[in-house]
Design brief:
- The protein is mainly alpha-helical.
- The chain has 9 helices and no strands.
- It is elongated, with a radius of gyration of 19 Å.
């Protein structure tokens, strides 16, 4: 039996050891579902600005922008969960002879996404502040200048830094998760996690600079 959700942060080694024995998906699914809600809500202000920047002849697509932002934000969280779990499972199997059911890998991957929830909330708030502090043009004419101002906003920079720190936090938790879910050494688990997380980190740093 899992000792408690707080152990995920206080003692991840012990937490994931318990998860490996009880690989239920209800808890991690709730984590990812909450992350999806946060992502969808955080995208609404961006969708509002996008709708404002649309030319008059494309105004009919404004509603579509909201729908794709909300649905994409929510569904995207589950897609990320699945992709990371598949990569962790395959790499640990092929490179380190990892053993254990995919459901167990899926469970620890979902739990490891927990840091993305507070990071997503803070990032969404910072993005909102950036939008509030940047003059929004009433049409597509000023879109390029608006995007340039947003990219240089200290709020957007802070959100990017938070995203990098959150990803590193996730990778730390995933390392313990993969170790216990796949029955591999901690070093091998770290290498397994470093492959997809490293790619994501490079992408985030590229967008940050």
């Amino acid at each position: 039996m899992v000792t408690g959700p707080t152990d995920l942060f206080a003692d991840p080694g012990r937490f994931f050891e318990d998860v490996a024995e009880d690989d239920g998906l209800r808890g991690p699914a709730l984590v990812v579902g909450f992350l999806g809600i946060v992502s969808a809500a955080g995208g609404i202000p961006v969708a509002e600005v996008t709708a404002t920047l649309l030319p008059p002849e494309a105004s009919a697509f404004a509603g579509f922008t909201y729908v794709t932002t909300v649905v994409g934000g929510f569904v995207g969280a589950f897609v990320v969960w699945l992709v990371y779990a598949v990569v962790f499972h395959l790499v640990s199997s092929l490179a380190f002879d990892g053993d254990g059911p995919f459901a167990r890998t899926l469970a620890v991957t979902g739990w490891g996404l927990a840091p993305a929830v507070p990071v997503g909330i803070l990032s969404g708030f910072l993005t909102y502040l950036a939008l509030r502090s940047t003059p929004i043009p009433s049409g597509p004419e000023g879109a390029m200048a608006f995007l340039a101002q947003m990219q240089n906003s200290p709020y957007v920079l802070a959100a990017g830094v938070l995203g990098v720190l959150g990803l590193l936090w996730q990778a730390y938790l995933w390392t313990y998760g993969v170790k216990h879910a796949r029955g591999v050494e901690l070093r091998d688990a770290a290498i397994t996690v470093a492959i997809p997380a490293g790619i994501a980190l490079v992408w985030r740093l590229y967008n940050l600079v």
